[in-house]
Amino acid sequence: LPVTYGNAGGYGNAVGYGQYAYQQEHQQNDPNNNIYGGGYGQGYSGYASYPQAGATGSQWPPTSYNSGYAAGSAAQPAAAQGGSWGVLAKGSKGKKKGGAKRDVPTMNSSQWPPALRDFVERVFVNCRSSAERTKAQEWLRAEIARVTESGSLWTANWGSYAVPNFTDSSTVVTCPMCGNAFAPCKQNLTVLNAQRYKVGLPPIEPPRRWQDVVSLELGPSGEMQIRVYTPEAVAGRWAQQFGGIQWGDFVHEQCLDTMAAKAKEFQDVSNLAFPEIMQHKWRELQKWAKHVNALAEEELKKLLAEGRELSRKRQKNVNSHLHTDNRKNRANANQSFNPPQRQHVTTTSCNDESNEDDLRKSLRKDRFGNGGLLSGETSSFIKQEKRKQKLQVKRARQSQWENKGHRARDVLGDDPVVGICELMCPLAELEKRLRTNDFDELEQPNSKVPELKNLGVHNLAVKRFARTITEEDRQPDRLRTRSALKKTMLHLLGLMDSKRATFEKVHRFLWDRYRAVRTDLSIQHIKDDFAVGCLEEMIRFHIIAEHELCEETATVTNPHGFNSHLNVEQLYKCLTSLFSLYDELAKSGKPCANEPEFRAFQILLTMDTHGKYRRDSSAHCFALSKMRPEVLHSDFVQFAVKLNSLYHGGNFVKFFGIVRKSPFVVSCILHAYFNPLRTKAVRLFSAGVFGKNATLPVSYVKESLLLDTEREAMALLRGFGLEVKRDQSGETVVRVGAKNFVEPEENVPRKRSAFISALRAKGSQLSSFVSSPVSVHLAP
What we know:
- The chain is 51% helix and 3% strand.
- It is mostly helical.
- The strands form four sheets. The chain has a three-stranded antiparallel sheet. A two-stranded antiparallel ribbon has the order 1-2.
- A hairpin with a 5-residue loop joins strand 8 (724-726) and strand 9 (732-736).
- The relative contact order is 0.04.
- Residues 1-87, 89-107, 333-351, 366-372 and 403-414 have low confidence and may be disordered.
C-alpha cells in the first residue's frame, strides 16, 4: 500500500502510520533519518479506525515491525500476529508525536534462529484466548531471556521443548467426551472416589492434566507420543483423535474413568495395545459417558440428601442437649443464691466423627485383617522368600546356566527355563500389586470367612496373565514350579464353589488366572500328564460356564458381563494345546486315558456355527481321519458322531431323548444347539410333517423339545407365527400344517435350562464336575 509521509508524529492519509524516531546509539534530529513502520522501536500501530492496518500487517515482515496487539486485533487478526512478534522482541514504543528515546533491546526477533521462530508460532497456535496469549508472551519472554543469558540460543533444541498449557484450573472448559462444561479444580469426585475405595484404589485429587495421566515421550518429529498404552492412554488417544484434546488439557475425571473402563474391555477383546475405533463407535462411547455421568449425579444427589438428613439429626441432638442443660441451670439457680457455673455443652459431632473413624477401621480390619494388606506377617514373609529365592537363583545359575550368558535360551537354544517360584504369585508381582493395592475381591483376606481368617494376601494372591511376555517374565523367579502350579490349580478349583462372590465374578477371575498357568506351562516346556490334567480342567470349566452364565451377558447396565465369544476362544485354544500334547505323548507310547472324551468334545463344539466360529464340515472329516483307531471307535467319539448326525438330520425327538440321558458337562455343550434345533422342529410343524390342518398338544411339544414349562412352549410357537388355542376338551393345542411359519427378526436369546440345572443339583459341587472325567454309554 502507498505510504504518505506526514509531519513528525502525524498520520499518513493512506493507512495512518505513526511516525517514530529511529533509535540507535544516539537520536538523530535529521527528519530524513526518521522511518515509518520499522526499527528497534515500535513500528506501525494498527489503528482501530483504520482496518487497512491489519491488511498491511500481513504484507510487511512481522519480524521488523510491531503492530500493537490491542489495536491490531480490532482491525485484523494478521496485525495481531505481527504484534505478538514485536512484543516478544521487546521493542520500545515511541510516542505518537516526537518519539522519545527509551531502553534499547539487545536483540530483536529478526535475529532469532528459525527453530525458535517455529517454537514461538507453535506456542501461539495452542492459545485459545487473549488471557492465554498474555500468559504465553510472559512465559516466552522469561524462557528466551534465560536461554540468551546462558548463551545457548542457537544451540538449544527448541523442537524438544514442551509447550505448557496456559489455561487456568478455575476456568470453565468443555469435556470432549460428554460435552459438559466443568471447572477442573472444582470437580466433585465423591461418587467416583467412593467407587475407587471399594476396589482398593487411591482417591483422585483434581485438577489433573492428560500429561499427568498418560506416560508420554518425545517423538522423532518433536511431538509427544504415548510410551505405554494403558487404558487411560487409549482413552486419551481416542479423545485426541475424535475430540481434539491436547495433552496439556485438563481431565474430566468421571469421563476418564468411564472411557478407561471401555478401553480395557476393547484391549481384552482385541488383544491389541491400542484398539482403533471408528467415528460411530466414538459417538456411542460419548452417549455411554453421558449416561454414566447422569447416574453419578443421581448418586451424588442421594448422598447430599443423606448428608442433610444426618446434619438435621445432629442439630436436633445438639438442641436437645442445650434444652436439658438450660433446665438444669434454672433449677440450680432456684435452689441456691450462688450463680450457676457455666457448663460445657458436649455436642455429638466430635463423637460421631470418632465413631465413624472407629467404624471405618473396623470395616477395614474385617476386609483386610490386622495391619491391612501389607501386614507384619506379609512383610516378614516377603523378606524371607526373597532370601530363599536369591540362594535358589545362585545355585541354579551355577548348575544349569554356567557359561551360557546367565540367561535361559528357550528361544534360540535347547534349554528351557526352569521356574523356582514356590508361590502362587511371584514376589516381584506381589510387591508391585501391594504398592498399588491392586487385588481382586477373591484375593483379599476376610476375617468373617472361617477358612480365610488366618490367611494373608500372600496366601491368596494368584499370578495375573501378562499379554506381553518380556525377558524379565522369563526369569526363573517369575515362573512357578510344578508344585506351585499344582497348588494354584487346586486353589482355583476350590474358588468355583466359593460363596464370597457370584459365579460370574469367579469366572472372570479364573478366566485370567488360567491363562497365566498356561503361559508358565508353555515357557517351561512342561509336556506331561500334569499339563494334560491342567488343560482338561480348564476345558471343562469353560464348557460349564457356557450354560451357567448364558443369561449374564454384557449389557449397558452390566458392561463386565459374560462374553461367550471370549470364553469359547479360550476353550478352543486349550483344546489345540491339549491335542498337541495328546499326539506327542501317544508317539512316545504314553496315550492318555481321557483323550476320547475331549476328542468328542471337539466334535460336539463344532457341530454348528458358534458366534464368529463357523462350522466346517471338511475340518470335521479331517479331524476324524486323523484319530487313532482306538480313539475313533471309542464310545465317546461314536456318541458324538451320532448326535451330529441327528442334529443335522433334524431328528429332534431322538436328539433331545439322548440329551435327557447325557451327563451334566455334555448337556452344557449341547445347550447351545437347543434353540436352533427347536426352530427346525417348529418349521417342520408348520410344513405339515405331522399332518395338514391337524393339531398337536402343547404338552407334547414341551416334552419333545425339552422345554421347561408349557407357557414357554406356547411363547415359542407363537413367536414363529403358529396358532395356539384350546380344543373342545379344554387342552391347549397348536395348529400344524398351516404353513404359517414366520422367521423372527431377532435371534431367540439363550436361557438356562431347568433340566440341566437339575442335573447339576443332583451332583455334589461344581468343582467335582470340573475335576472328574466324563463317561457316556452308547445306546444300541
